[in-house]
Amino acid sequence: MSAAPQVAADRAGRQAPPSRRGPSRNRAALGFLLPFGLLFVALFLLPIAYALWQSLYRTARSGLGFGPARTVFAGLANYGAALGDGSFLAGVGRVLLFGVVQVPVMLGLALVLALLLDGRGARFPRFFRLAYFLPYAIPGVVATILWAFLYLPGTSPLVSGLGNVGIRADFLSSGTVLWSMANIVTWTWTGYNMLVILAALQAVPRELYEAAELDGASAWRIAWHIKIPLVAPALVLTGIFSVIGTLQLFTEPMVLHSLTSTVSADYTPNMAAYNAAFGTNDYGRAAAIAVLLALATGVLSFVFLRLSVRFTGERAAS
Amino acid sequence: MSTAPSGRRPRPNVVGTAVLSVLALYFLLPAWWLLVASTKSSSDLFGSNGFWFSSFRLGDNLRELASANDGLYVRWMLNTLLYAGVGAAGATLFAAMAGYALAKFRFRGREAVFNTVLAAVLVPAPLLALPVYLLLSKAHLVDTVWAVLLPSMISPFGVFLSRIYAEASVPDEILEAARMDGAGEFRIFFTVVLRILSPALVTVFLFQFVTIWNNFFLPLVTLSDQKLWPVNLGLYYWNGLKDHTPYNLVVTGSLVSVLPLVVAFLLLQRFWRADLAAGGVKA
């Protein structure tokens, strides 16, 4: 990616005569950047700085906790409190477990769908593509409400159907509710990821497959040795966004929280942050959780990127 | 693909088609349930077969939905359209301007600005919601439409995509020619550059539109006035009412709330395919 700007710069350097209007043109560039830049600084960079600052302070109340609130420097106490809180750590464990299972299942499914749709014998590709992509048009809140009706014993044709064949299904028990959420996320996002992978597949020149076919390679071998390595960048991209999405899990558990007691108010880290801010008005704690989440997101994305670069590098070399 | 001459059509892949069909059921059945359920009364939602019709009272449900709480639902839908429409339009224009400046002007700190924006693509939006709420409340903007609109007008992904696209498709020669003719930089942008960038901008707009439409954390945090809520938040509230949840309204309201997006997807699907490749794979 760094090559493109370089080329552009070289070309511009050769073609454009030394401009006499340099300063005014730079002013124009500033003008173009200004609307986005102002909003970006005010509502992106400043909030991050503010969260960092706030995470170092706590609200102290004099007397028995009814006195006026004062803000006092707390150092890293908010971080310590968050990291020492068993229910917060349980929430972290939950999203990690969720991600380890859900992300590979979803991306695997998206990859299989993309490969089947890209294959030469695929029937009705337009219909299938639309069918898989449809859930992406359904917002998380609505998707969760919808699936909740399919989970609740009173309204669910699934529960009654399974009951008819002698299986007592409880999709909202403490042991199953996390996977019921994973199902909602998978249902919503598989089609989107499939589309990204499919776009990468369709950008591959067909001659590549034809050459392999002439050499007698089977469809499986072509998929495994040619197609999958070629779409690896798309897989890495969807993987990173999925990892981020997992750590940020909020909408689905929040909606289920109002329906079942098996989803606590601090079920995921993001819910814990929300609860700290608006349940107990502890903004310092909420900010500390937000910062920890941002750090975890950054670290995990980075590790994921490195691992996948190494993995795909080896695949390509072999 | 479907236009290939039928003589060259390869053997249909029976196993593959079977797998595709079974999985299509998984993705379509819940949507089918929603369609069926929104024709039922609250009592028929419980007890009748969820995948088939019983009493058909879609019209009654829609009337009830429109009139409930003095037309609150209609307001929620209009609010959502306002937030998603205006927010995405603003985000797209600002991203196009910034992306174009980063692609076609050479100034000090250009790469630093771009890298900061690129890093921001990875910053998860819900993470910002709490500090944004606190800053907005200091600016007395909480519980106004600006609390949702302003943060929605930032699209780092849009800047990223616009820059890549502008670099590849806006020829320097055209810009130079327009400058020779004496056109100002902003006039060049609005009359020439925007038109060239439009395929990428449709993608940016669609992405941002869906993102805002789906957004839940930000309005939940910044809006307590029911009249300002987007439809997501309203449905969440109705669904969570402990004793007297209006089930038929939740279901019918859910269906109505997703129709605009589904229609938009059907109409605009070719844009999703073409430019996802440009945005996704080059990253």
Automatic annotation (TrEMBL), chain A:
Ranges of residues in domain ABC transmembrane type-1: 92-304
Keyword Transmembrane helix recorded: yes
Membrane topology: Multi-pass membrane protein
Membrane-spanning ranges: 29-53, 95-118, 130-152, 177-201, 230-250, 286-305
Record keywords, A-Z: Cell membrane, Membrane, Transmembrane, Transmembrane helix, Transport
Keyword ATP-binding: no
Cellular location(s): Cell membrane
Disordered, as annotated region: 1-24
One Pfam family here: BPD_transp_1
Matches recorded under InterPro entries: MetI-like, MetI-like_sf, UgpAE/MalFG_permease
Listed name of the protein: Sugar ABC transporter permease
Taxonomic source organism: Kitasatospora terrestris
UniProtKB/TrEMBL annotation, chain B:
Transmembrane region(s): 12-35, 81-103, 112-134, 146-166, 186-210, 247-268
UniProt keywords, alphabetically: Cell membrane, Membrane, Transmembrane, Transmembrane helix, Transport
InterPro entries: MetI-like (IPR000515), MetI-like_sf (IPR035906)
Subcellular location as annotated: Cell membrane
Domain ABC transmembrane type-1: 77-268
Location (main, coarse): membrane
Membrane protein topology class: Multi-pass membrane protein
PROSITE patterns: ABC_TM1
UniProt record similarity statement: Belongs to the binding-protein-dependent transport system permease family.
PANTHER family: ABC TRANSPORTER PERMEASE PROTEIN MG189-RELATED, ABC TRANSPORTER PERMEASE PROTEIN MG189-RELATED-RELATED
Name this protein carries in UniProt: Carbohydrate ABC transporter permease
Organism field: Kitasatospora terrestris
